[in-house]
Amino acid sequence: MSTKQEMMLMALAVKQGLIQKEQVQECMDLQAAIKEAKGVDLPLVQIALKKKYLTPEQAQNLAGGGGPVDIPGVGDSVSIEDARRIPIFEVEREIGAGGMAQVFLARNKQSGARCALKILYPKHVSNKKFVERFIREGRLLKEFESENIAKGYDYGVVGKDSPHPLYFMSMEFIDGPSIQDLLDRDGPFDEQKSIYVITEAARALAYMQERGVVHRDVKPDNIMWAGDGRVMLVDLGFAAPIRKDLVGQYEDETCGTVQYISPEQARGMADLDIRADIYSLGATLYHMVVGELPFTGKDSMEVMAKQVMEGLDALKLKGGKISVHMHYFIEKMMSKDRDFRYQTAREVVDDVTEVLQGAADLQYNPENDPSSPFMLGNPNASQRITGHSTGKFAPIRNTSVRTTAVPPTGSVRKPPVAGTTSNTSSIRKPPIKPGTSVRLPSAGTSVRLPGAPPTNPGQKSVRLPAPRKPGH
Ligand SMILES: Nc1ncnc2c1ncn2[C@@H]1O[C@H](COP(=O)(O)OP(=O)(O)O)[C@@H](O)[C@H]1O
Ligand SMILES: [Mg+2]
After folding, report:
1. Co-location of 325 and 370 in the same domain
2. Nearest CA to ligand 1 atom 23
């Protein structure tokens, strides 16, 4: 059924002579037929676009008339021709796309330097908040000097007062896949490799934390593995100053990606700090080693409610797949209560490094791994993987969202207690004997985590698998 809003848009389009009445009628008939056959509600504008009765620009203008109206399929891409309107770059090809922007491989005409050119989707240019965030990202990238964050070069806007302004930023080009690309291609990561990636990403977070900034959208899509061996955190589009002064306050909307979002973010708390990123990094680690998302649901609200209230699936964590060390890292990072997580990103790096000193099996050197995207070891492995999936694990496409927070009612404030769910705060650190090599227990060994109360009273032990072969 056509909504009142889209009927008004169509009436406007007819009035402006962009489309004929008969064509609108044909689109409406098609819409009804698709609804009947597939149960899908396609917006009229999208159908008119498909039939080429409207151009993307016309559709965008119609939508833009009354402020930022989000019509699926309209204004959520930037063509290479559009990108070429920015005079300072030679644009080569598209290399990535996210929820906010499209990214191209380009060259600065003056310096000849290769760069990644990120351009805000047209549908967001009328949203002041999005434009501000985009510009803040450009500024932060330019200020930051970290091995694990792409260096920012230029940022600005072309045609600011025209109907189609292009907000852009250029930055160091990262020649390599994202962690999501690798998950789509190969399925779950070996523990060694995932720990390496997470520790390197934590270094980027430590750098940001030391400058009073929280990322707010850490996830596999936003971590890239460059051909020169560096693991890099990208997409500072939601990065914001840490606001300690907002303790006890809530925001109407929250941002991030619900599958990786921290409980405090899901509840819309305003005083977010680096511990929110540490939770998302833990959720990323979970996804990397388990090969599945920690929480799923029929919609964003259900997933966010689970982030707030539901414990991790003990079976997936202890059901024979992952080591006691990995279990500890994940539980500690994903504690519902941020006071029980690592308190700083530097602590993540230090603790993981310390625990691994005693676990030779979890040591990883990308230079010795021919399957890593490390260019020196394997020149072919650094090629970007796009639109390719093995089908082993269905690609999970989740874009960053603005969404309504789970209401901060008393019932969801407390983290779950041990006994019914996995209590992320009670797990203790596995013992380390610095300098000695500790092998993971072999298959079938029952190990009780030292000092930790059993999370399930009926199940006192953790079953551990045989160490898996390296070389994911
Ligand atoms: N510096 C870069 N070099 C190469 N590819 C990049 C770079 N930055 C981003 N990308 C690619 O583009 C995608 C979208 O960029 P991102 O900054 O995440 O945009 P969004 O804010 O829309 O999510 C990323 O997931 C990544 O694949
Ligand atoms: Mg992104």
Report:
1. yes
2. 98
Q: Is residue 468 part of a domain?
A: no
DSSP secondary structure code for residue 392 in this structure: S
Nearest-angstrom CA–CA distance, 334 and 243: 21
Domain end: 141, 171, 201, which one? Answer: 171
Cβ neighbours, 10 Å, residue 66: 12
* Spacing, Cα 386 to ligand 2 middle (Å): 15
Residue 163 contacts by C-beta under 8 Å, 6 or more apart in sequence?
Answer: 61
* Residues 139 and 220 reside in one and the same domain: no
Q: How far is the CA of 110 from the centre of ligand 1 (A)?
A: 24
Cβ(98) – ligand 1 distance below 6 Å: yes
Q: Identify the CATH number of the domain in which residue 292 sits.
A: 1.10.510.10
Q: Which atom of ligand 1 is nearest to the CA of 121?
A: 22
pTM for this model (two decimals): 0.72
Ligand 1 midpoint to CA 100 (Å): 10
**Span 315-354, pLDDT tens digits:** 888 776 788 889 999 999 999 999 999 999 999 999 998 8
Query: Which residues make Cβ contacts (< 8 Å) with residue 190, sequence separation at least 6?
Result: 364, 468, 470, 471, 472
Q: Identify whether residues 101 and 210 lie together within a single domain.
A: no
- Write out the residue range of the structural domain in which residue 269 sits: 179-463
Count of domains for the chain: 3
More confident residue, 46 or 429: 46
Ligand nearest to the CA of 239: 1
Task: Give phi and psi for 373, each to the nearest 5.
Answer: -75, 25
144 and 191 co-located in one domain: no
Whether residue 97 has its Cβ less than 6 Å from ligand 1: yes
Query: Which among 171, 199, 224 is the end of a domain?
Result: 171
| Nearest CA residue ID for atom 25, ligand 1 | 221
- Residue 441 within any structural domain of the chain: yes
CA of 374 to the centre of ligand 1 (A): 19
Q: What is the pLDDT of residues 168-199, one digit of tens each?
A: 999 999 999 999 999 999 999 999 999 999 99
> Which of 235, 255, 397, 398 best tests ligand 1's pocket when mutated (most atoms within 8 Å of CB)?
235
**CA atoms 253, 259, 264, 267: torsion sign:** positive
Q: Are residues 269 and 403 in the same domain?
A: yes
